[in-house]
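Memo to structure team: turn this sequence into structure tokens by end of day. - J.P.
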Amino acid sequence: MSEIPRGRCETHDGDTHLLRYVMELPHPPAEVWEAVSTPEGLPGWLCAADPLEPRLGGRVTLRWLNSDTEVSGRVTAWDPEYVAEYTVDPPHGRIRFHLEPGSGSGGSTVLRFTNEFRGTREYRLDCLAGWHDHFERLAAALDGHRTDWAEWSPEHWADLRALYERDEAPWPKWVP
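Reply from structure team:
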């Protein structure tokens, strides 16, 4: 279905979720940094960012281009070419991109992503599927195929959500 590894989730205190994705992208860190940390790069796979003040404490507003979702907050970690973290209004919470050189020849990048937020089990599954879909779009954008948001439809997201829901379903009880 996808070359993006599945995300994982840790849940604490019942409704605080920490989503984690780790992927190696066959592009140099500077290209991935541009995609995850600039108003020019983000719309190609995730959302519009205006304003995005690239500094610790800077203002950020993220507006998803496939819905009416808009959240504002602050840049809560900023280490150019390595870490971009945005802490925004609920329900999105803390969104962190951590880049490091990959092991691939020609300059690949390992992207370690976390998203910490509060929400229901259903919302957690929505987010796992949503981020997975966006990371597929990130890989495509890095390959020169930016998302045409006018063509977006929810079918692929729904398939991903069903996959994540199946992943956590309890195994049937075995009866000999």
